[in-house]
Write a structure and sequence with these properties.
With about 110 residues, this protein is of the alpha+beta class. It is built from five helices and four strands; from the N terminus they run H-E-H-E-H-E-E-H-H. The chain has a single domain (about 5-100), classed as 3-Layer(aba) Sandwich (Glutaredoxin). The longest helix is centred in the middle third of the chain and has 13 residues, at about 30-45. Keywords: 2Fe-2S, Iron, Iron-sulfur, Metal-binding, Redox-active center.
């Protein structure tokens, strides 16, 4: 396993919800990442974010790790969920909120 894969696996396994994104939740660097942050904030769940723009190994490695070509990418309890379009579809259908409840994801601290 590559060093990038180990680092990705480590952060995914240690956090209930992880968003690999461009930028940070306070300063998203693309519209898709901004939408993903807004969705997670609306779900009121605690999540870890990883700025792929800060590390090219992670930026390329996450695409191979998930076998998904685009960023952002959402992981819940170690499982890949999808990108911002899938997040939006699931959120609008209430499925993302159900997934968070089923997986007993911690609520965001106020």
């Amino acid at each position: 396993m590559s060093a990038a894969n180990e680092r990705i696996s480590d952060v995914v396994s240690k956090n209930d919800v992880v968003l690999f994104m461009k930028g940070t939740p306070l300063f998203p660097q693309c519209g898709f990442s901004s939408r993903a942050v807004a969705i997670l904030d609306h779900c009121k769940v605690a999540y870890e974010s990883v700025d792929v723009l800060q590390d090219m190994e992670i930026r390329q490695g996450i695409k191979a790790y998930s076998d998904w070509p685009t960023i952002p990418q959402l992981y819940v309890k170690g499982e890949f969920v999808g990108g911002s379009d899938i997040m939006m579809e699931m959120f609008e259908a209430g499925e993302l909120q159900e997934l968070m409840a089923e997986k007993q994801v911690a609520p965001a601290s106020e």
